Amino acid sequence: MHRPSLLLTLLTLLALLTAAPLPAIGYRPLPHLRPNSSDLRFGDSKKYEGSSDFVHLRYHMGPVLTGSITVHTIWYGQWQKSQKKIIREFIGSFSAVNAKHPSVAGWWDTVRLYTDQTGANVSRTVRLGEQKNDRFYSHGKSLTRLSIQSVIKSAVTAKTKPLPINPSNGLYLLLTSDDVYVEDFCGQVCGFHYFTFPSIVGYTLPFAWVGNSAKLCPGICAYPFAVPEYMQGLKPLKSPNGDVGVDGMISVIGHEVAELATNPLVNAWYAGQDPVAPVEIADLCEGIYGTGGGGSYMGQLLKGKDGATYNMNGIRRRYLVQWLWNHVVSYCTGPNALDQ
Ligand SMILES: *[C@@H]1O[C@H](CO)[C@@H](O)[C@H](O)[C@H]1NC(C)=O
Ligand SMILES: CC(=O)N[C@H]1CO[C@H](CO)[C@@H](O)[C@@H]1O
């Protein structure tokens, strides 16, 4: 999670200590949309996207996902078939090496640069797992960080077709529909990842939550396909799959899955001294989607004949996904870099 200032960090810590025992490992698409944030902490003198001598991303000896990864999905609330398709095809594109360049699989190559203690890389294989529908809002339309774990528990312990328990290489992706509020949604985060507590769920399962912001705050969480009201005169860009909320979720899902793969139990790859608020491989590149990106500039993007903005190709669709920190070269990289 991007930390705008020391004061904010302290306040956040205080809030965490006093309120919830759960760290906020969250994300918003553009750091400058955060109240009071200065532009990217790296300043203007960078040569490469996000490059900085101050970033010390380190490996903390915990596991990373080196075996074939399976993403199980929980659809919470009302979801249309067309929306599920956009998201499922995105996840299905992570390993689709034959997709047109620049591809989602090319984007996943940056994640694969991360290794565990034995030198094994993050897996190239990401598969779509089982799906669970929670159409009737089993835990209401307002979820907390803790009740999210109860939603996951319901999904893995359901009487009919429970999601499989797969603690070592399974990821659990909870997606909430546009009428569901989640603690800190829109204010601090558009999504976050963590792992479930055995005391609540019965297992330690790495999971992420990402919400559809279409009704609550598209200008924040579906930027640049929607823009905040205060940015008068700025026009939203056309989204590649015709669904502002879902197209906006795509980059957040990419962000969270990349971090889950490299830091599933929050003790592997992160920067900063503080495991309560680790800075992870996607946090370091928030707001960067192409060459030259940084500050409030997203970088060089692609524009389709239909006017839609994107930066990579999936199996059948186009997507706009933020770049990721490449610890080999110490800057953010993505498949649509112009210097490749
Ligand atoms: C595995 O990680 C190492 C270290 O980052 C990297 O040099 C190598 O290219 C990676 N292998 C693959 C297949 O990505
Ligand atoms: C420097 C700056 O922009 N400070 C603003 C931070 O946010 C508060 C309220 O959200 C404003 O009152 C400050 O002016």
TrEMBL record:
Residues 1-19 form the signal peptide. One of its GO terms (cellular component) is apoplast. It holds the Pfam family Phi_1. Its main location: secreted. Keywords: Apoplast, Secreted, Signal. It is found in: Secreted, Extracellular space, Apoplast. InterPro entries: EXORDIUM-like. The keyword Transmembrane does not apply. Belongs to the EXORDIUM family. PANTHER family: PROTEIN EXORDIUM-LIKE 3, PROTEIN EXORDIUM-LIKE 5. This is Protein EXORDIUM-like 3.
